[in-house]
Amino acid sequence: MKKLRKFEEEPILKKEAFEEEQKPVRKKRKINREYAMVSAFFIVMFLGLIAYLIYFQVEISEDFINSPYNTRQDTFSDRVVRGRIVSSDDETLAYTEVYEDGSEERVYPCSNVFAHVVGYDSNGKSGLEAEANYTLLTSHTFFLDQMKNEFKGIKNTGDTVVTSLNASMQRMAYNLLGERRGAIIAIEPKTGRIICEVSKPDFDPNYISYNYSYIIQDENDSSLLNRATNGAYPPGSTFKIVDVLDYYRHKGTLDGYQYICEGTITQGGHMLSCYNGTVHGQENLYEAFASSCNCAFARIGLQLGAPSLIKTAEDLLFNRSLPFTTYRTSTFPLRKDSPVAVVMQTAIGQGDTLVSPAHLALITCAVANNGLVMKPSLIDEVRSVDGEVVKTYQPVPWKQIIT
């Protein structure tokens, strides 16, 4: 029996000894696993950093370099003469005159006509001078010529920015606006190309450095304000586009609407009239829209209700960011519990609703382009001083805002 017990106990002893021997091995494996996890973490981080650096260089580096807040751009002008800005019909809008003593002067041949959209390059930068600053201070001249010029201490010439602006149309819009305060903007719906952009009161960018102090202190004219993109105005009867879209969403058709306009409408103790009290009589929705009948659309606004108008207006980018960061956000303060008088006023584009001309242009473009808003653009292509095309800008879809 003793021998048998001894025989039975030996495996137990051996197992305990084996487990003791394996403890350092298990501990070592655990440590190795921890090292492996830490190493894998750092490898993933490293690969992620490499991927981001590649993405940064390929996709967004130019945006950072071209930012108006990047003061390093100013150092480029030490070795590059600022390039030209030209219209789509090849009229020079801005160039740099270099004198015999080496001094430089930025010249704007069209004076006030392109003042806001092209901008200026002294006392800060604005317009295309700011947006395309990096491009204008980058030279794609043949590299051997660049080396030769640098060896001689001669500045290379920056690239030419070819805009989408049509000089003939810009001049026509400028003359049509006359002495009025306001703005005109035209955008191609299917491409987003801005064809003209005029704002008044204006200024002459050739003399901005001399007149800057006076201009910024003149609160009456606010000449530096680009009213096309940053003006804020009641939309007036243009807001009836929003009403019609909202009506169509509810009814699925524009047919069948009938209204008898008597020149005024009174609801909830609030009376509203058509322009000059005009009586439009019996009209369908097409006729009410064509005659811009305030009474018909005040009634439509009440029928649709504030919540529905809010939804459609916000779908059309009221109270929303617009595709250009320099565009002003339009405000639509209507509330779901707004009183009858406010709903009626809002439905005809009055009250506290404010919109920029550029935003109204985008809404119109959306209607004309099957609900798709293209990102507005001012640049068609970039050319070297030798005329070689460096970069071509393609139309970019921005957002489907309606069906």
Class by SSE composition: alpha+beta
Number of strands: 16
How far is it from the N-terminal to the C-terminal residue, by CA?
A: 94 Å
Poorly predicted runs of 5 or more residues: none
Radius of gyration: 33 Å
Strands ordered across the widest β-sheet: 4-3-2-6-14-15
Overall spatial form = flat
Helix and strand succession? HEEEEHHHHEEHEEHHHEEEEHHHHHEEEE
How does this model look, in words?
By secondary structure, this protein is of the alpha+beta class. Helices cover about 40% and strands about 15% of the residues. The chain is built from 14 helices and 16 strands. The chain has a 6-stranded mixed sheet with strand order 4-3-2-6-14-15, with no helix packed on it. The chain has a two-stranded parallel sheet with strand order 1-5. A two-stranded antiparallel ribbon has the order 7-8. It is flat, with a radius of gyration of 33 Å. The mean pLDDT is about 90.
What's the structural blueprint in terms of helices and strands?
Layout: H1 2-65, E1 80-81, E2 85-86, E3 92-98, E4 104-107, H2 115-118, H3 127-131, H4 133-136, H5 143-152, E5 156-157, E6 160-163, H6 167-177, E7 182-187, E8 194-200, H7 208-217, H8 227-230, H9 240-251, E9 259-261, E10 264-267, E11 270-273, E12 281-283, H10 285-290, H11 294-304, H12 306-315, H13 340-347, H14 357-368, E13 372-374, E14 379-383, E15 389-392, E16 397-400
Parallel strand pairs: 1-5, 2-6
Antiparallel strand pairs: 2-3, 3-4, 6-14, 7-8, 9-12, 10-11, 13-16, 14-15
